[in-house]
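Intended use. Records like the one below are meant for learning the mapping from a protein sequence to its folded structure. Do not use them to infer anything beyond what is encoded.
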Amino acid sequence: MKTRFIDFEGIHGSGKSSCAWNLYNNLNEQGKDVNVYFEYDLDNAKESPCDLKFLAVLKKSELDFILEKFKEHRERIMSSIKQYGKYYCIFFAAFKDVPELFDELQEYEAYEGRLDADDFIQLVKGRIQHFVNIALENECIYVFESVIFQHILNELVRFSDCTSEYIVDSILEIEKILRPLNPMIFYLKPYDLKAQIDKVAKERLSDNYELYPDWIDWMVEYVKKSKYGERNHIKNRVDLMKYFMYRKEIEESAFKSLTMNKQEIIVEHIDYEAENHFIYKEVVMHI
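Structure written out for the chain above:
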């Protein structure tokens, strides 16, 4: 069975985006039909089919409210809806040309604890199942960043009371949905987590602190302003490492439990060119 789904996971600064981009370019140069989706599409112009970024997630009553409030855009809104179970999803980044509608839809984003853990996972599973159904109708190879681990952990660790076992089990359920695409995962893992975070903190400095903070200070606030942050009294960079360590424990447990084709890469133990050559060689063997 050919591999059609490839995911890159790892801590911040581990090289996920670069590896995904290099793999995409290499496969494209070989004439392969390939799509790539990054953790953050900087211009929000490309909708990822396997996560909930830039999606307004609405119940029927909420959708009716939006349709009534923005009657002049009703047809366009209706044509953009994707339904997963009881939720109606709209990629609100496509409505930047209608600022009031964009702002209204953004209020319904799925993150920051808006959905409970069960609903969040059911929505993710529904979205990924929809993607798999479509992918099985073509021969395209799909390269992703942060679908199986980070997308889920960022939300559930920060805003739910669920256990690490629940998160791992949810990831394994998603793996089952992806099986028809013979998925592969590359887990880019630092040997020394603290050293990696310190490295990223030094690299991602603000050039205008009045407008936005350094990455590490933004991360402290990102975790601090969450249920996890409140429960664990996150106040500073030292506390932040506890969050990263907990995340790492869950990722490693999930990675160990996965039955898909998986490759763990210790990023400090391989140079950039060798890393990308290894990834390309592994992928070519399975597509």
